[in-house]
Protein: Vanillate O-demethylase oxidoreductase VanB
Organism: Paracidobacterium acidisoli
Amino acid sequence: MEHRIEKRIELKAPVSRVWKALTDHEQFGEWFRVKLEGPFVAGQTAGGYITWPGYEHMRMEVVVQKIEPEHYFSYTWHPYAVDAKKDYSQETPTLVEFHLKKTEEGTLLTVTESGFEKIPAERRLEAFRMNDGGWAQQMENIREYVAKRP
């Protein structure tokens, strides 16, 4: 089994615009569909409730790892942690990394999520499958977001 998800998309927007969509917690929340309660700060937890229909009862929390302006943003989280009765806090989180690179057309955004081999075996495949599809959708979401809000 592959233990890493990688998605790439070229966005017709400057790096500064894509960076703001990624790291401003309100803008991130709009395209990612989560209402975050505060800004992204390296070393701190950011959380809020998901706004996807049918998932509004679920809370998303990430621990911001690094913020390197207009180049790199990363956080850890517990992938596909959807069972409200389960405590995921003892699991090793996966690492989500956003890399931005200037191109002739705008910005190449690469998202990787790694560390699935550390997820408990009974939920590893489903977490990988759901996040693989989820990141494909999120790439479309950010593409539409920066196109509509230059």
